[in-house]
Design goal:
- By secondary structure, the protein is α+β, with helices and mostly antiparallel strands.
- It has helices at residues 11-24, 42-47, 96-111, 124-132, and strands at residues 2-5, 53-58, 64-72, 79-87, 114-119, 136-138, 152-157.
- A seven-stranded mixed β-sheet has the order 1-2-3-4-5-7-6.
- The longest helix has 16 residues, at 96-111.
Length: 159
């Protein structure tokens, strides 16, 4: 498995992975990443932002099987957001989420003091990973949240 920065040619595949994943949890609803306007053009979206990046994991056949992003959050220059961590079903259960998180958090430490993320309580496997990686559960979303369907919010001190 190789992890690299997203390219335009990856947009359609990662959009498919994200949408199918959300559908599998009945989360193809407003207030989730399913309806993010930039979902079909993630490569361009992340290239246009300062201190932001998106990485994809590709298998031996050069097929994208997952991805994760880091982008600025809110008005604070010290806070980033972990964004769109999704893994295709055929690549789940092999530690790929942790590898993607390691890449994203290494990048985040270079640019930010805190990493924030929004998720759902019912996504137990993901939440377990966040806890193992030192994220702390918050009582509510940070100000400026766009995903009002979320019910679990985490933050990690990076520096």
């Amino acid at each position: 498995m190789i992890i690299r920065e997203i390219e335009v040619k990856d947009n359609q595949r990662i959009e498919h992975i994200i949408k199918r994943s959300l559908e599998s949890f009945d989360l193809d609803i407003p207030g989730t990443a399913y309806y993010d306007p930039q979902l079909a053009s993630l490569a361009q979206f992340y290239q246009q932002q300062a201190k932001a990046n998106y990485w994809v994991a590709v298998n031996e056949q050069d097929v994208v099987v997952g991805g994760v992003g880091i982008g600025p959050y809110g008005q604070s220059a010290d806070v980033c957001e972990l964004q769109k961590l999704y893994i295709a079903p055929e690549a789940q259960g092999i530690g790929l989420s942790k590898k993607l998180m390691d890449v994203a958090l290494t990048y985040a430490k270079e640019h930010y003091s805190y990493c924030y993320l929004e998720t759902l309580d019912k996504l137990e496997v993901a939440n377990s990973l966040y806890n193992k990686l030192g994220f702390e559960l918050l009582d509510k979303a940070l100000e400026g949240s766009d995903h009002d369907a979320m019910d679990a919010w985490y933050i990690k001190k990076l520096k």
